[in-house]
């Protein structure tokens, strides 16, 4: 089954479009877990136990796992999320020349979807796009302030670069497996992009810690009810000051966010 069909089912099952970002900054993992063999895995396991009923997906960001212990922690985390029937979207922002990107795309055997970077063009994304079962979220208009440096540049045609990216992504969506990443900090761009590519689901990060617009994230992020609104730090570190019971605050934060976003779902 195609990723977006699976996501549709998952959203219906848990009545949630929340993507729980698993970005376990080692310096913020509670003291009592620091002695664990793999503190990031010990942390994620407790977060997953507390939040899975509210999670449409888990989105681990690869940056938090790029060392030998991190790779082990990530492997355990992915398997555990799958054991709870939650799809995993790896936030890797990959892409490279052909033979290299083919290696990157092998990750899709382990996760359900991935984020990719369009900067190197279609051939750099081809092995991801060719994988009919997996979701491919292409960075379009990112949430960070520096996103404007390149993405807002106006092309000769008069359109901003990020709109060209959206048009290309629509063209590359031959297998109905493409989505866009559009930050919640850019509500006007979200609205414009939704008009431009009505059928592409969006992954919308940037609410919570980055201060983005949750209502716009839902109103424009979903295509036919399918899309994702991510919160990472706002959920996983909600119980940072609560010691050994930290995870129940994360569960409550995920539930609160689900309810808040559901107010805006059609
Ligand atoms: O691709 C992403 O998920 C992403 C794109 C973007 O434009 N902005 C953005 O914040 N993200 C990711 O979404 C997560 C946001 O984390 P919080 O700000 O803690 O909710 C991080 O993993 C970011 O790397």
From TrEMBL:
Active site: 93 (proton donor)
Catalytic class of the enzyme: lyase
Keyword Lyase: yes
Keyword flag Phosphoprotein: no
Known catalytic reactions: orotidine 5'-phosphate + H(+) = UMP + CO2
EC number in record: 4.1.1.23
Record protein name field: Orotidine 5'-phosphate decarboxylase
Source organism of the structure: Natrinema hispanicum
